[in-house]
Amino acid sequence: MAKAKTKSKVKNEIYAWEGTNKKGQTTRGEMAAASPDVVKAELRKQGIVPKKGKIKKKSGGLFAPRQQPITTKDIAIFSRQLATMMKAGVPMVQAFDIVGQGHSNPSMSKLIMQVKVDIEAGGTLASALSQHPAYFDELFVSLVDAGEQSGALETLLEKVATYKEKSEALKNKIKKAMTYPIAVLVVAVVVSAILLIFVVPTFAEMFAGFGAELPAFTLFVVGMSDLLVDNIWIFIAVIGGTIYGLKQAKLRSKAYREFLDRLALKLPAVGLLTTNAAIARFSRTLATMFAAGVPLVEAMVSVAGAAGNSVYKKAILQVRDDIASGTTLQVSLSQNKELFPNMLIQMVGIGEESGALDEMLDKVADYYEEAVDDAVDNLTAMLEPLIMAFLAVVIGGLVIAMYLPIFKMGEVV
Which residues pair with 30 in a beta bridge? Predict the structure, then answer.
């Protein structure tokens, strides 16, 4: 009876190497490989003679420097660099070496070298990227796969790079709109807590020696201070537990996520920003997929995932079902005018009639990305006076409450 052989997957490590190239120059770099012998063999293939004792596994011990996280911006830069290299005629493996060794983020360099090893083992670029779904999503892999199958990988990599750069820019605009008010509110809460915990009790002790009756507003603030000081750890636990609970609910509860997405579309000012961002993502993603030659029905799955809002995701999947049953994209979008604006519907119709759907969608994406810019500026302009008023009421109210008894004493004197 024959025994089945199980092939164990060899784990690649990152090795730092130093060697001499064909010109006699010293060169250094890093490489993902199963052993130092594999590194030596690979370097000799590249015309590099490794120096004795200069191939060392990178340290990952307790006191090793903390790994720098890989961001969406890193992936966008990698896509642009790889597209440029391949368009210039640089072989793919060599392009990975150049991009990987020149990257400023060590974690990204390691990822690039791991992808390179998979390609050298005989895999396609799409299959190698698909081994790292945390960094290369289904949309990215689908576009690369389409490029490899059509023989236009350089062109598709450029489209992927442009898509990633536009998506990152859009995300940063939305973050910009949210960061300022959140930061101001956090500072207001921290300052108020410091006043209530440290400053108000000092005034309360001073007022106790006066023997006079304190104003109602001052008594209210002193009562708040006593409550916070006596139950400080309970307040911290409640706030921390609430934040943790909301985060977990968002991660685990589909109904809660849908509720937040619906709420985001209905809030004043924020709703317009969310809608414009969703339409921009929809248009940009669909334009990129369609230009890559991905069939419309298949593309809609990736487009729905990139929408960034569960309400739009459901609507896009419904559009996919309509297209699969023979309906045109324009007709399907026009059945849900609450989510898809008339401009998008008309431009899609023109694109379908002229055979330039990807160009029309790109124009729509450009328009709504500019609309997001305007919405961010309007939201910031609207929030600034509201935030100033909030700070004046909260911080100013605490200060006035403490000085009211002093003013009354002055009047009596």
Answer: 16
CA quadruple 157, 158, 161, 163: dihedral sign: negative
Handedness of CA 139, 141, 143, 145 (dihedral sign): negative
Q: Which long-range contacts (CB under 8 A, 24 or more apart) does 222-226 make?
A: 224/196, 224/200, 225/196, 225/197, 225/200, 225/201, 226/201
The average pLDDT across 147-153 equals 78
Specify the DSSP class assigned to residue 28: E
| Closest among 28, 364, 39, 373 to 176, alpha carbons compared | 373
Question: Taking the C-alpha atoms of 67, 143, 160 and 369 in order, what is their torsion angle to the nearest 10 degrees?
Answer: -110
**How many C-beta atoms lie closer than 10 Å to residue 84's C-beta?**
16
Whether the per-residue pLDDT at 382 is higher than 70: the answer is yes
Per-residue model confidence as pLDDT tens digits over 228-285: 888 889 989 998 999 899 888 888 888 888 898 899 889 887 888 889 889 998 998 8
3-state secondary structure 157-211: HHHHHHHHHHHHHHHHHHHHHHHHHHHHHHHHHHHHHHHHHHHHHHHHHHHHCCC
The mean predicted confidence, pLDDT, of the chain is 82
Its pTM stands at: 0.67
Average pLDDT for residues 297-321, to the nearest whole number?
Answer: 87
Q: Can you tell me the distance from the alpha carbon of 117 to that of 125, in angstroms, rounded to the nearest whole number?
A: 11
